[in-house]
Design a protein that fits this description.
The chain is α+β, with helices and mostly antiparallel strands. Helices cover 32% and strands 27% of the residues. The chain has a single domain, classed as Histidine kinase-like ATPase, C-terminal domain (Heat Shock Protein 90, 2-Layer Sandwich), CATH 3.30.565.10. 25% of the residues are buried.
């Protein structure tokens, strides 16, 4: 698989478009478990960009998928105001629901599903890098 890029607008229709895009890239090439984890993580990131980054207004989201050294690497770039989601505190999953802080569960989910998550601030906005280790024989 070569580098594959898709650019979508920041709206809810993009979720379906991205799901189809990921299915076409990875179906029958990686395990169902890895495929599901990647889909869920990417969807969570994109929903957060649409909702919080762009505040449900018009914007662009770019996604680049690569396979390198037994990893699927997904670069997600947006042009919303800079925000590093990795600075959010880890949610207290043991606390009673009434005592829990609002927010942060999506980022916790992304970190749980991926092997590595990196953030880079760019001149234009944000660059999130998701890495998922896959079995080399599956490719």
């Amino acid at each position: 698989m070569n580098d594959n890029r898709i650019i979508v607008r920041s709206n809810q229709d993009s979720i379906t478009i991205l799901s189809e895009y990921l299915n076409n890239l990875f179906k029958n090439k990686i395990s169902e478990e890895d495929n599901h984890a990647i889909h869920l993580a990417v969807e969570e990131v994109v929903v957060n960009i649409i909702t919080h980054g762009y505040n449900n207004s018009e914007g662009i989201i770019e996604i680049l998928c690569q396979i390198k050294d037994s990893y699927i690497i997904i670069h997600i770039c947006d042009y919303a105001p800079p925000f590093n989601p990795l600075f959010l505190p880890t949610p207290d999953l043991e606390a009673d629901l009434i005592d829990r802080q609002i927010g942060g569960l999506g980022v916790h989910l992304i970190k749980s599903l991926m092997d590595e998550v990196e953030y880079k601030k760019t001149e234009e906005g944000n660059h999130l890098i998701l890495k998922k280790r896959i079995s080399p024989h599956i490719l």
